[in-house]
Amino acid sequence: MTGQEKIPSFDLTRNYNRVKEEIRVALDRVLETQHFILGPEVECFEKEIASYLEVENAVGCASGTDALLLSLMALDLKEGDEVITTPFTFFATASCITRNGAKPVFADVDPDSYNLSMESVMEKITPRTKVVLPVHLFGQTCKLELITDELSQKGIAIVEDCAQAIGAHRIIDKKICRAGSIGDIGCLSFFPTKNLGCYGDGGMVSIPHNKEISDRIRNLRVHGSGKTYFHDEIGINSRLDAVQAAILRVRIRHLEEWNEERRIVAERYMLLFKEKGLLDVITLPVEEDGNRHVYHQYVVKAERRDELQEYLERRGISTRVYYPLPLHMQHCFSYLGYKEGDFPVSEKLAGSVLALPIFPELLPEEQERVVEEIAGFYGRQN
Fold first, then answer.
1. What is the pLDDT of residues 14-26, one digit of tens each?
2. For a disulfide at 63, which of 86, 88, 201, 226, Cβ 3.0-4.6 Å?
């Protein structure tokens, strides 16, 4: 490693320094009330998220994983039911399907957006398909309008995994549609490194237009209890706590600003890579027409990816690989019968993608250094 300061893939400290006084006021408010589980802070935050997404209801829970789990529980999946999703995503997307007793059915992804191919989804539908679970990966919304009408006619629900995409939107029929408002249910994560992150774990389920589902998820998150100590069904313990809700109420006020700063960082990367003449060895992320990408991650495709990552690490630049092994090739899913070659786009991406440092406070000179080092690896320095 050189003597230069390390560039992290994400720096929470810089972001905290921008809002710490507001955060302290919010925490004091909770401490004064001594109301820590659910309660007024959570209720207010649920309303604020619902308003932001322009949906009827939002229900706080303990994590993004639980948001997925609760959503699928509310849809009454049973053994033999199928849920179509992507193999190129975080593990929880598929594990929540199996934990509900259903079968994950994978469909391949688009090589440019990394999102589910809607054509591939439609090819996977069978009479057993109950849900399509798209992931708005890395901060960009899937083209769900291509399949919503047909899925609705078939009685197939859409559960959006929006863990990486709060604030992303897509123009559909000349209307701005935010991630989490397009399907039947949306699932959000507030893990600290997300665009809207808390200081622990937290999640949310958005329900655009179904109060019955909303009420049921509220009960399921407290052991299936609508009235204390009276249980209509078996739920789980998954509650958003008041401390995290108070923190998130501060941070959501800044979300649009921070997302725009991420977009500026992404634009600067594009210009720097073009200036260095690296576009033959580095493929930049594509923002699809009609989308507002919020760049939760800035993921490029790189030749000799593993060598490049090791080189950058030695030079003090932290990068990540999301994701090195597609889900259909994970040992725990071997019982599904998939094999190497079944999803060639996902498999190729797993061997070539690299997430570069990106966060709102990333400095221009840090980005310049990242691209300079990449240019050095490929022998392109001026």
1. 999 999 999 999 9
2. 201
CA dist 138 and 127 (Å) reads: 31
- Helices (DSSP H) in the chain: which residue ranges? 12-33, 40-53, 64-74, 92-99, 118-123, 148-153, 211-220, 242-251, 255-275, 305-314, 344-350, 364-377
Query: Which residue from 262, 255, 326, 248 is spatially nearest to 294, judged by alpha carbons?
Result: 262
- Please give the backbone phi and psi of residue 83, each rounded to the nearest 5 degrees, phi first: -125, 120
Dihedral of CA atoms 357, 352, 96, 118 in degrees, nearest 10, equals 110
Element containing residue 354 per DSSP (H, E): strand 353-356
**Residue type, position 286, single letter:** V
Angle (CA) 43-233-190 rounded to 5° is 35
- In 28-174, the DSSP E strands lie at 57-61, 82-85, 103-106, 129-133, 157-161, 169-172
Could you name the CATH architecture of 13-253?
3-Layer(aba) Sandwich (3.40)
CATH superfamily membership of 254-377: Aspartate Aminotransferase, domain 1 (3.90.1150.10)
Phi, psi of 59 (to 5 degrees): -130, 120
Q: Where are the domains of the chain?
A: 13-253, 254-377
**Which two three-digit tokens encode residue 5?**
């300061």
Distance CA 63, CA 236 (A): 12
Identify which of 362, 363, 361 has the alpha carbon closest to the alpha carbon of residue 15: 361
- Each residue of 78-137: pLDDT tens digit? 999 999 999 999 999 999 999 999 999 999 999 999 999 999 999 999 999 999 999 999
- Please name the residue that has the structure tokens 């400095």: 363
Phi, psi of 291 (to 5 degrees): -100, 150
Q: CB of 288 within 8 A of CB of 156?
A: no
pTM of the model: 0.95
Q: In angstroms, what CA-CA distances link 346 with 87, 108, 281, 297?
A: 7, 6, 19, 17
